[in-house]
Amino acid sequence: MAVFEANLAALADKVAAKLSDKRFQHCLRVKDYAVYLAEQNEVDPEQAAVAALVHDYAKERPDADFLAMIDQQGLDPDLKNWGNPIWHGVVGAYFVKEELGIADPDILRAVTEHTTGAGHEMAPLSKIIFMADYLEAGRTFPGVAEARTITDESLNQGVFYQLSHTLSFLASQEKAIYPKTFDAYNDWALNQSTWS
Ligand SMILES: [Fe+2]
Ligand SMILES: [Fe+2]
What we know:
Layout: H1 2-16, H2 21-40, H3 45-54, H4 63-72, H5 84-90, H6 92-100, H7 105-113, H8 124-135, H9 144-153, H10 155-172, H11 179-190, H12 192-195
The structure holds fe (ii) ion (FE2) (2 copies).
């Protein structure tokens, strides 16, 4: 455990170097909430701590970095029509891998999926990071207390709550909805009897 704590502290320094203090503090709160949810849901808390710490690692990079990485990795060119809110997860995972040397596929997947969500067969660690990002102690949106209670009762219900509320919110603002998020919502809605 001491070795892990030392490694985590070194990783935190690398993340802090790339982020504003405000966003770094968010990452630390996501880490605390992710460890809490991991322990509640029998997911490895160390894996959750690392994934949470790095989930927004790429968030403050210039758009040009993401566009270059999309080309370099041969990712779907449609991604270029979106922006930082999607890129910092889907494309950001490549920066996490290359610059932080994180190779754990579960962690990279959790970073990838934290900006889009995924279908009901989403990996447990991805669910944890998706929810910890939404529920960390600094969040104050209307309904956050209800969302925390629901997630304490059922991680799956929490994910579905977030997806449905995010979609409703984006539509109410007349904003575009990333297709993968739309598909994720439909997948959870259509398969409710299997996961609820
Ligand atoms: Fe994020
Ligand atoms: Fe975040």
